[in-house]
Amino acid sequence: MRGAALAATLAFVPLTAACGGGDDSAESERKRSRTAVTDAPANGVVAPAKVEVIAGLTGCTPKIRIDASELRQGVCHTKKVDYLITTFPTDELKETWLDSASGYGGKYLVGTRWIVSAQPQLLDGFRDRLGGTIRQLRGFGPAAEPSAS
Fold it and tell me: Distance (Å, rounded) from C-alpha 102 to C-alpha 53?
């Protein structure tokens, strides 16, 4: 299900990348949630924006699914889990992708011009190797409101 949601999101990246807009609530939320990219404690580096290099740092050889001007995406298949590595030529395209993916919610490991989509429990381990920041996307639908006492 998550793979289908990600694939659907990726289909809209070229469309959303071409659209400009004002500083709407999604843009404001993104600016508030943005944090500095941090170095990977284990390697002392931040992974570059190349699918093959990031995959190598996580211990896999990726199968490239998408090779477009807006993004490159590779799938890492292991005995335990599959995960996606998506790279972008600019941080603006990365942020556009994240805005589109926010409708589905979830946690992502986000670095400079790259995103790793994996099961949430794996993200900390990947962060140790790659650097980046774990970002929680809210998703569409009603938000839980605190009850009034």
Answer: 26
DSSP string spanning 33-54? H-------TTTSS---S-HHHH
Threshold 0.85, pTM exceeds: no
Ordered strands of the 133-137 beta sheet: 63-67, 72-77, 82-87, 114-117, 106-111, 133-137
Q: Dmax over Cα atoms in the chain, in whole Å?
A: 54
Kind plus residue range of the DSSP H or E element containing 79: none
Per-residue pLDDT of the chain (149 residues; tens, 9 = 90+): 444 444 444 444 443 344 444 445 444 444 444 434 444 545 555 556 799 999 999 999 999 999 999 999 999 998 888 999 999 999 999 999 999 999 889 999 999 999 999 999 999 999 999 999 999 998 776 554 444 44
The amino acid that residue 15 corresponds to is: L
Report the C-alpha gap between 117 and 3 in whole angstroms.
9
φ, ψ dihedrals at 57, nearest 5°: -70, -25
Q: Is 13 exposed, middle or buried (0-12, 13-18, 19+ CB in 10 A)?
A: buried
